[in-house]
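ok so heres the complex, three chains, lmk if somethin looks off
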Amino acid sequence: MFYLLDLFGTLAFAISGVLTAMNKKMDPFGVFVIAFVTAVGGGTLRDVLIGRTPVGWMLDLNYVYTIIASFVIAVLFRKKLEKLRKSLFLFDTIGLGVFTLIGLEKGLETNLHPTICIALGTMTACFGGVIRDILCNEIPVIFRKEVYATVCILGGTVFFVLLQLNVPESIVYLLTPAVMIFVRLLVVYYKLSLPSLEREQ
Amino acid sequence: MFYLLDLFGTLAFAISGVLTAMNKKMDPFGVFVIAFVTAVGGGTLRDVLIGRTPVGWMLDLNYVYTIIASFVIAVLFRKKLEKLRKSLFLFDTIGLGVFTLIGLEKGLETNLHPTICIALGTMTACFGGVIRDILCNEIPVIFRKEVYATVCILGGTVFFVLLQLNVPESIVYLLTPAVMIFVRLLVVYYKLSLPSLEREQ
Amino acid sequence: MFYLLDLFGTLAFAISGVLTAMNKKMDPFGVFVIAFVTAVGGGTLRDVLIGRTPVGWMLDLNYVYTIIASFVIAVLFRKKLEKLRKSLFLFDTIGLGVFTLIGLEKGLETNLHPTICIALGTMTACFGGVIRDILCNEIPVIFRKEVYATVCILGGTVFFVLLQLNVPESIVYLLTPAVMIFVRLLVVYYKLSLPSLEREQ
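and the predicted structre for the whole thing:
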């Protein structure tokens, strides 16, 4: 179940990569690489920084197949995807929750401090998009307006608070992404965003 | 012989880095770093992702010396290099073949699936250029028009098909880059490129 | 003492990150990530390339706390920091010396060749800024005009020459950053910079 959600998240992230790359007039190889990096970039960075190598997607081909499928779907149905925006957004939010959870888990397995685990969760969920934006020569969108990362940090904090309160693990694993998904939907519904920090005024 | 070709490829990639960086009005340090990264960036990324550390060029100084030599040659003879474009292109194509082969080999040594090995071969040959373009603040050229990466993927496929057919290894190691070099020359000669995937039309 | 200087350098680098990011109209999360990456990016890259994982800042939370403190200070006092430029520049120069020294040391511990150690020292001191500039979508400033990296290479060379001359280690560890700080102040005072290498003239 969890694994399936992970592949769902991978699918959503890969599709968002395809759509971004096609706007940049890239050729099919470029579009595929961007899709790949958007989907597994965050987890890859996490694995490299904690020393889990070969990195995850090299050992489980289902990720590669999922991304290839996303690529084909997104290229064939690019016009229709515009209309499916809401479903895509839901997938993406599920991905956000699941990826954060996976990052938190790997941090715990490596015996790292909760603060670092939260950083790893956020990295897993957000840095695929950061690498995508860098490859597309743009300032990463999550540095400018999305509350994306804030939701991950919140999720990580909820996770450790619940564990501290001796809430059973299975419930923690359900509640954490539930809170994240709820908050993100709320934020998008009310169009909230963090204020930008400008210098000199 | 193989090792010599590897250093040839390093030389060609480093020179292409110097020429790109000089167009961006960088200072000598910047030019050197770009040359370095173009030459060893792909292999470094590969080594980091599969966990072969310290990465290759740290353990064999010949790569460093080759890049320093390329830097000096390219800076001194920058005007004449324009005229030598064809030879440079040939070096570069040899580098492409050899680097792909090295990536395939490291993937096999790490017991990874053929699909992942092909990805590693392509990464070794292409990602030095990708990092070069990111450092120069451009959308990577191989994502937009070159058939560069496609040739690497083709080479990797040929490699595994031949192995599957029980062709002796030494012949596989000769045929793979030969096919790649032949296809690339053909592609450039006939000015072929992949169509770009644009959204909305 | 050395450790304290390291945290001082981290503070200075993080503040420079905050100031750069605020000029780009990033939101608080973006500003924090840029501060983080500027401060620990060089050391993280070094650790990944030589295989020391989990990377340094994951195992010692003092770096994280220092960066959080820098972030808060820089955001609260952004107007006053302009006037403190000279002190900041001094911190930054101390950071440059200390970070280079740490890179040299890790290289020696990993039994790498002096040339590679000098590269690691330079990387530790300079690549945080490079990653900061890439995330801000600019060509890295040290590739264009600063003599920053040259000072690191000089420092690394001095370090190994002194070791070769059998100068006691404690003196080498004091003299190396002293020479670097002196040269950098001199360079900035006389407004020296390396000439840019342009093609075609």
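quick notes: Chain B has one domain: 2-189. thats all i got rn
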